[in-house]
Amino acid sequence: MKIIHNNKIDMHALKASLAKPEIFTKSAAKFWDDQHISGQMLTFHLNPEIEAASKTSVCEGGGFWSPDSYIEILNTCLYENPKTEGIQYTIIDANGAVKIIRLYHRLFGLEEIAKLLNNHHFTVETVYRNLKGETLGAGSETYGIIARKA
To answer: How many independent structural domains does the chain possess?
Structure first.
């Protein structure tokens, strides 16, 4: 998809590229196969100083998604059934070519996780607030679960 035609931004095409997709819609670009992106993914995951999800920017001289200059527009969507967070990156290069990359994170409640584990012959032994072993509280958004094969 391109959003620049006759040296003008096609606002309809731009709007369409930013629209909330149906849940689990595949990415338009095969970003896992891209050598530059896979190298950046490793670098970002290993660097505790980088919070990639909070970045929306103009990347002159290249960046995470491309070695060339581009604009990155980040949209986050929540879906209720099943409870899922969708993250959509719209990447626009200097020629107006658009790549849309979508990532989905399935969100589970504690009861749902326990049922899934039980259905696969695991027993939940202990639940923590996180993977550090902190005490679980009512407002916990993450879990550290110890389960054993039944």
So the answer is: 2
Q: What are 19-28's pLDDT values in tens digits? A: 888 888 888 7
Q: Are 124 and 147 in contact (CB under 8 A)?
A: yes
Distance CA(25)–CA(103), nearest Å, equals 9
One domain for residues 87 and 123: no
Instruction: Say yes or no: 54 and 126 in one domain.
Output: no
Same domain, 94 and 136: no
C-alpha R_g of the chain? 20
Does residue 38 sit in the same domain as residue 101?
A: yes
Helix residue ranges per DSSP H, the chain: 11-18, 35-46, 110-119
**Residue 91 corresponds to which tokens in the numbers above?**
């990447």
Q: What is the pLDDT of residues 93-117, one digit of tens each?
A: 988 999 999 999 999 989 999 999 9
Q: Helices then strands (H, E): number in the chain?
A: 3, 8
Q: How far apart are alpha carbons 90 and 98 in whole angstroms?
A: 7
- 3-state SS assignment for residue 32: helix
Question: What pTM does this model have?
Answer: 0.62
